[in-house]
Write a structure and sequence with these properties.
Cofactor: Ca(2+)
GO molecular function: arylesterase activity; metal ion binding
Pfam families: Arylesterase (PF01731)
Radius of gyration: 21 Å
Bound molecules: 2-acetamido-2-deoxy-beta-D-glucopyranose
Family: Belongs to the paraoxonase family.
Shape: globular
Low-confidence stretches: none
Largest sheet: 5 strands, mixed
Strand order of the largest sheet: 8-12-11-10-9
Number of strands: 27
CATH topology: Neuraminidase
InterPro entries: 6-blade_b-propeller_TolB-like, Arylesterase, Serum_paraoxonase/arylesterase
Number of domains: 1
Structural class: mainly beta
């Protein structure tokens, strides 16, 4: 009896542990029986001249959008965040651009002087200068292909840097100021810049560029982090061990930083300390994994969310696959619930099966002009919706 009892209890324990690890996996992959509910997707236009823009940032005073774009073909070969490391894939023709929604004008920004190692974009931030708000600092992740050993890219990963540019409102020229390369910049994903053109926080989506453990991140065996850099004094890890660290955005107070988890869902709320370390004060729960974050003029956090994570992963390498998209708004709760610890309220504001907005990784809200912009790492077009 007890001899039989022992293996059964062991089996039950193993099943419980596997189940505990597996449920989040089903949730991440969107295999937990979620049904799509189209929302906010009827009054939209698409802009196919701007494909594969992983990150979009609104210049709130003018309503102009800044975009970090590529091509779906290039993303299929070279997307270090998901281990696509074929450095001899299509030549990198990544670019930064602006889009003026009121005229439809698109401008490809010219980098001066050109970057010797080329540009392979991912996350980005655009911040008006504290000295003169008509001047803008642009901070962009650059996943350079390794220059000395392009054949070894799949083993050593990308030679990732963060580039700092200066431009002015309405200008088509980006003046290159700094290339920041540092051991703390491991697998940079997204950036929250500052108004001095010198300091920024960024997420590392993993803890190594290439390794077996990376592939087991989904089981919690490898986490990302947030780093901090000052172009004069260097970089450091501001907070280690954040599962699925992905999009990063700064609250209007500048000291609260939000980081989205592309793995287990949820938004980490971090507070900046005097030494630029970050302290986690909250985690806002969400019902699905999420990606890039932005904060609008009213302090509402907007998140690109993934109804079906697995379809999303397949879509990055096969852009024609309809990957459904959703967006959520996170509002600071000032009602009675806040007293009991519900500091934030999460509301779904957009959902679509992938025809209007496909594989969305970045969502931006223009609170003044009531527009919602959606774009995705391998999406065929920008989507602009009236809200
Ligand atoms: C996608 O959803 C729209 C309604 O939002 C519907 O008209 C269309 O048929 C759907 N397409 C697919 C491929 O499911
Ligand atoms: C900055 C940025 O765009 N980050 C993420 C957006 O979404 C894609 C898809 O998951 C991620 O790979 C990016 O790292």
């Amino acid at each position: 009896m007890s001899r039989l009892y022992f293996p059964i209890s062991v089996l039950l324990a193993v099943a419980a542990v596997v189940g505990y690890r597996l449920y989040p996996l089903l949730f991440i992959l969107g295999l937990n029986g979620r049904v799509l509910e189209p929302l906010g997707n009827t009054d939209c236009i698409t802009v196919p001249a701007l494909p594969a823009c992983e990150k979009i940032v609104l210049h709130a005073p003018t309503g102009v959008l800044y975009l970090a774009c590529s091509s779906p073909e290039s993303r299929a070969h070279w997307t270090p965040a998901i281990n696509r490391l074929n450095a001899s894939g299509p030549a990198d023709d990544d670019f930064l651009a602006t889009y003026a929604p009121h005229t439809g004008a698109i401008v490809r920004l010219v980098i001066e002087p050109p970057l010797p190692g080329g540009l392979s974009v991912h996350g980005m931030d655009v911040v008006p200068s504290a000295d003169d708000p008509r001047e803008l600092f642009i901070y962009a992740v650059n996943h350079r292909r390794p220059a000395d050993a392009p054949d070894a890219a799949s083993k050593i990963g990308a030679d990732s840097t963060i580039e700092v540019f200066k431009t002015s409102v309405g200008s088509a020229v980006l003046t290159h100021l700094h290339t920041v390369r540092d051991p703390a910049i491991i697998t940079p994903n997204d950036i929250a810049g500052s108004s001095n053109g010198r300091e920024f926080f960024f997420t590392n989506d993993h803890a190594s560029k290439t390794s077996l453990l990376r592939h087991l991140a989904v089981l919690g065996l490898q986490a990302g982090s947030v780093g901090y850099c000052d172009v004069h004094t260097g970089c450091k890890i501001a907070i280690p061990s954040l599962q699925g660290a992905n999009g990063i955005a700064r609250a209007p107070n500048n000291d609260t930083i939000f980081v989205g988890s592309a793995l287990h869902g949820g938004i980490y709320v971090l507070e900046r300390q005097a030494d630029n370390a970050l302290l986690k004060t909250h985690t806002i729960a969400t019902d699905r994994p999420l990606d890039n974050l932005s904060v609008d003029e009213e302090g509402v956090v907007w998140a690109a969310t993934f109804p079906y994570g697995l379809t999303m992963l397949k879509h990055i390498v096969n852009a024609t696959l309809l990957s459904p998209a959703s967006a959520h708004a996170v509002v600071r709760n000032t009602g009675p619930g806040s007293f009991y610890g519900e500091k934030f309220r999460v509301e779904k504001v957009f959902e679509d099966n992938g025809t209007v907005a496909r594989g969305t990784t970045s969502v931006v809200h223009d609170a003044v002009r009531r527009r919602l912009f959606l774009h995705g790492i391998s999406a065929p077009h920008l989507t602009v919706c009236a809200l």
